[in-house]
Specification:
Elements lengths: L2 H12 L5 H18 L2 H8 E8 L3 E3 H6 L6 E5 L3 E4 L5 E14 L2 E15 L5 E10 L10 E2 L12 H21 L5 H8 E8 L26 E6 L5 E7 L10 E8 L4 E9 L3
Parallel strand pairs: 1-7, 4-8, 9-13
Antiparallel strand pairs: 1-2, 3-5, 4-5, 5-6, 6-7, 10-11, 11-12, 12-13
Helix pairs in contact: 2-3
Protein name: Nuclear transport factor 2 family protein
InterPro entries: NTF2-like_dom_sf
Length: 280
């Protein structure tokens, strides 16, 4: 083999093409770096899409809410751990640990947890946050290994407009069915019925792990996570989608809030990540 050809072959062996989840991880890390350099609210305003959502504790228009917040002496550190990107490369999930340090009078308050962020790629090709929620739990390390949940190596054609609309309606019906099931007494069975084998269930007091049903879920009250849906969307390729919901109206008291990521398995939508809480 020619020396140059040998050198090039070695280069490509050790320098594989960038994977979609690598790009999303880089976007999450850039966001986190801006959180340190710019401050929490300015960083969120920089990286959140115009139509994004944030939970405070109910889902609200993120940018409008952020603009109204006073400057605080808060330090928020975070990083990606679990990543999933649609075959079209336009919708993604990032979940990872966070550490909050805040001054409260003469004391420093520390808190830990995991976030769950839905990302979308805009028309300029830049990843933006579409929805963000999280949960708190015991202290965990921020320096964790990335765990990509899929990496598409071939491009996938976009669904036709009609097929895309049908696939979105199917997602909404599946979300409706889960919300109805969560009004029953057997919450664990409801999640098992609708979830993938590697589902990530994020709850206060529990560190998430693929396919693990948190013990706190076994004691969850019926109805939590059954609140009205506020938004839903799917990728252009129709293989990844999200739903989120919650309402502070009296008739929805006790139904909590939720943010969910769904994966289409070729026949039906399956829940692959979820963060739900009582919003109390």
């Amino acid at each position: 083999m020619h020396p140059l050809a040998l050198l090039l072959s070695m280069f490509f062996l050790v320098s594989p093409a960038t994977k979609p989840t690598d790009e999303l991880a880089a976007a999450e890390r850039d966001f986190a770096a801006d959180g340190i350099a710019l401050g929490v609210n300015p960083a969120f305003l920089k990286h959140f899409a115009a139509d994004s959502w944030i939970f405070r504790p109910y889902p609200v228009a993120a940018r409008e809410w952020l603009r109204k917040q006073p400057k605080k002496n808060t330090r928020l550190l975070w990083g990606p751990q679990y990543l999933e990107v649609s075959a079209a490369g336009d919708l993604g999930l990032s979940m990872g640990p966070w550490h909050l340090s805040a001054e409260r009078g003469d004391k420093t308050i520390d808190a830990y947890g995991h976030f769950m962020t839905v990302w979308q790629r805009n028309t300029q090709g830049r990843w933006e946050v579409l929805a963000d929620h999280g949960a708190s739990h015991a202290k965990v390390a921020l320096d964790v290994d990335l765990q990509p949940r899929n990496n598409h190596v071939e491009s996938v054609a976009d669904l036709s407009a009609d097929s895309h609309a049908q696939r979105l309606r199917a997602l909404e019906k599946t979300d409706d069915a889960l919300r109805l099931a969560l009004q029953g007494a057997d919450i664990v069975t409801a999640y098992q019925r609708f979830s993938t084998d590697d589902v990530l269930l994020l709850r206060d007091g529990a560190i998430p792990a693929p396919g693990v049903i948190p013990d706190v879920l076994k004691e969850a009250k019926a109805g939590i996570g059954s609140a009205p849906r506020r938004a839903a969307g799917i990728s252009r390729s129709g293989d990844l989608g999200y739903t989120l919901g919650g309402s502070d109206t009296p008739e929805n008291a006790g139904r909590g809030v939720y943010e969910r990521m769904w994966r289409y398995d070729g026949k039906t939508w399956r829940l692959c990540a979820d963060v739900t809480d009582s919003a109390n």
